Amino acid sequence: MTIKTQKQRMLAGELYVADDPELAADIRRISEWMDRYNASNTLSQPERQALLEEAFADVGEGCNIRPPFTCDYGYNIRLGRGVFMNFNCCILDVVAVSIGDMTQIGPGVQILTADHPRDPAQRRQMLEFGRPIRIGANVWIGGGALILPGVTIGDDAIIGAGSVVTRDVPAGATVVGNPARQR
């Protein structure tokens, strides 16, 4: 039987220890990248696109993330064509985050795949896990919204500003509030 590394456990969505040395090296790498990216305000969109392509798993043509931007690892993020993210967005990408073509994300949005055990004994061991987030095409997410672990948002949906999305959102739906509910 092969024993999985903490990184392999993390990527599989299993319980893992976040301060593992291999993961710490990945965090150092992305932190150095964020220093460069967040100093890129004067660069053109194509120059910033090239920086995104260095760090992310996949970046469609014409993506624009306005700095400052933060993420956990970068290598779990996939952006479709023409994705726009406004200032101060944060993606905790301990597992896959996919964002579809032409999706627009307002300032201060947080996309959080990281989760923690409900069992207090496991939390004391500093264990965590992740649940993937999928955001469809042509979605509009208003400023300050929180997208919680494991959520899928369908194509053409609208997430109201400041909403806390705790459940899947159907294609074409508009949701608002805390917790976000369909209008």
Percent in strands? 25-35%
Unreliable sequence segments: none
Mean pLDDT: 96
Count of the domains: 1
Spatial strand sequence of the major β-sheet: 3-6-9-14-17-19-20
* CATH superfamily placement: Hexapeptide repeat proteins
Gap between N and C termini, in Å? 50 Å
DSSP E strands, number: 20
What kind of oligomer do you see? single chain
Q: H/E element string?
A: HEHHEEEEEEEEEEHEEEEEEEEE
CATH fold node name: UDP N-Acetylglucosamine Acyltransferase, domain 1
- Molecular shape: globular
Radius of gyration: 16 Å
Count of helical stretches: 4
What share of the residues lie within helices? 10-25%
CATH class: Mainly Beta
Structural class: alpha/beta
CATH architecture: 3 Solenoid
Features:
21% helix; alpha/beta; five-stranded parallel β-sheet; single chain; 183 residues; UDP N-Acetylglucosamine Acyltransferase, domain 1; seven-stranded mixed β-sheet
Task: Briefly summarize what is shown.
With 183 residues, the protein is α/β, with parallel strands linked by helices.
Give structural notes.
The chain has 183 residues and is of the alpha/beta class. It has one domain (6-182): Hexapeptide repeat proteins (UDP N-Acetylglucosamine Acyltransferase, domain 1). Helix content is 21%, strand content 27%. The strands form four sheets. The protein has a seven-stranded mixed sheet. The chain has a five-stranded parallel sheet with strand order 2-5-8-13-16, with helices on one face. β19 and β20 (181-182) form a beta hairpin. α2 packs antiparallel against α3. It is globular and about 45 Å long. The model has no long low-confidence stretch (mean pLDDT 96). Keywords: Acyltransferase, Repeat, Transferase. Residues 7-61 form the Maltose/galactoside acetyltransferase domain.
